[in-house]
Design goal:
The chain is an all-alpha fold. The protein has two helices and no strands. The longest helix is centred in the middle third of the chain and has 13 residues. The radius of gyration is 17 Å and the shape is elongated.
Length: 70
Amino acid sequence: MGLFEHPFTALPIKQANATVNTPKAKALARQLDVESIVLLENHNKTLPLKKSSNIAVIGTMADGVMNVTQ
């Protein structure tokens, strides 16, 4: 399908931010976040992580500042 090589081919790049980054789209994303929260079981007392612990954040947008909500 080529979706990963050429994402959003139907949307001109100049219109992407105005289309995707709208208040309606942000509200929907926030609602999806709320509905998709997963509670973790704390087996072996792993949580909370020690300050010396390392974690891996993996994915295409793992280093994106826009992914952090306040």
